[in-house]
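Reading a protein record of the kind used here takes only a little practice. Think of the row as the fold of the chain written in a discrete alphabet. With that in mind, consider the following protein and its fold in token form:
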Amino acid sequence: MTVNYWKWVQIKEIVTTVHPPTVSFLRCPPVLKEAFTAFHPDLNFVRKFLKPLLIGELAAAEPSQDPNKNIAIIEDFERLRVQAEKDGLFKTKPLFFCLHLGHILLLEILAWTLVWLWGTGWTVTLLCAALLATSQAQAGWLQHDFGHLSVFKKSKWNHLVHKFVIGHLKGASASWWNHLHYRHHSKPNVLDKDPDVNMSGLFVLGAVQPVEYGIKKIKHMPYNHQHQYFFLLGPPLLIPVVFNLQILTTMISRRDWVDLAWYVSFYLRFFYCYIPFYGFLGSVALITFVRFLESHWFVWVTQMNHLPMEIDHERRQEWLTTQLQATCNIEQSFFNDWFSGHLNFQIEHHLFPRMPRHSYHLVAPQVRELCKKHGVPYQIKSLWRAMADVVSSLKTSGDLWLDAYLHK
């Protein structure tokens, strides 16, 4: 039976960008399996969810609609993935994640103990906020592990603990995170598909969008100054304002009462611990300041790997090339590993999102060799260079917008 190939593509994009990781392809061409295999640990279990979407099978003579995909790269990457599984790189080290959770809880206890022992003076309060912000940032990396199903063998245990960590330890929503983050992984830095590059008109990114905005005379903001107002609107406001509003809106609009209960449990615990010392308004001010500090940490870590990279419309390239064009790595060190939650290995994380992060450094040499073989750029930067590139890329994009706005 011959069917329209683009219907398969539409199904694929729905599957991998809206409803992961609960559905999969029944049968599809090899070039379509890369993202699906990357997200789903048990292909047989999830196969049943796609049965209602099966509209037929592609005829053998059906022409390819993905001419930009290099079959050699796809096959070599699949061999690398299979070898990584044989080498045990997808196996979790429970002690690693137990210690990580333990140090998060220890930071929470230390923060409260400081206030309990030495009162609510400015110095103690600032130190308390710093410890809580550190705990929140590290809990963010831990929920990321569970959200990607990279800790337990069974998906249901990853989902359950994910709700506990992101809900009770952080005061956020697992469903909200899944919906946004898997779309980002499926189409990183792809305009109109990756929610992480949807800046709601506040910023223009890359080399394509600024020119498009300029030609259309779109000026929601003075984009030629975005590298300056980024410091006012980006790091300070993302978590305290944007994320909090998104989380509440998503949970209520979707009637996600389970996530809402976990969300409420975080704030009940926080206010129970700190209202006796600071009162209600003081506790609200404390958690707001903690979110403010955490937001800076989060924005710089997550943007330095992606924002300076290529940002463009859909090109329909193979998985390896798509991920490498949108990501870069940061030099490895104990501090960089801890500070970024091992997202200094962003390339390996994007290629193998289910791989436990303690294995990234082991698969990285093989990824570099594969990239070298096929001429795919593999970028590694210092931490400070990567952060500086965030600002310089915003300036470059702003200049492109201004030129197009004035002269095209």
User: Anything to note?
Assistant: The longest helix spans residues 257-304. Residues 1-27 have pLDDT under 50 and may be disordered.
